[in-house]
């Protein structure tokens, strides 16, 4: 945690030095997440910045800006004043969107400065237990009726979308993509037995 705090403070202090101010001198510090509350990014960031808040004596305010595969929140962060009081907490989407969107309202290299990785987590395939018991069973059903299987994701171009598509291509079956603003919405549809599968990130031990 000390390593995270040092990197964060150093970067923002340098960004604010030009205006002759130290950091932080005012509250709150806004944390933009480009996915909904309850997403893996949100679940990891909250406990981390709770500790950072205690160490620096300043409060953080989370602001979820989901949609468009994470690009809405990223654009919002890119337009913020570069004063160290608006930070973006993002996923691997940050490096993906330049190759999946022909036009963006920001430049991921020019408009952002990386601070530090917060964590790593795997992606897992999630299906309703009442439909499939094994991966092989799901693939067999999809091949038997091409296009009959649906899979949800946290948005077009999101890592969960690309991982599911990679699996689909590797397994050799057709399926219908159902994008949502974030993974929590997709998970709700799985629990309601309204879609066949999702690729989901685990922010805690997967079971």
CATH architecture of the largest domain: 3-Layer(aba) Sandwich
The shape is elongated
CATH class group of the largest domain: Alpha Beta
Which percent bin holds the helix content?
25-40%
Give me the number of helical elements.
Answer: 7
Question: Could you report the average pLDDT, rounded to the nearest whole number?
Answer: 83
> For the terminal residues, how far apart are their CA atoms?
27 Å
Radius of gyration: 19 Å
What is the helix/strand order?
A: HEHEHEHEHEHEHE
Number of domains: 2
Proportion of residues in extended strands: 15-25%
Q: What would CATH call the homologous superfamily of the largest domain?
A: Bordetella uptake gene, domain 1
Quick description:
Helix content is 40%, strand content 15%. By secondary structure, it is of the alpha/beta class.
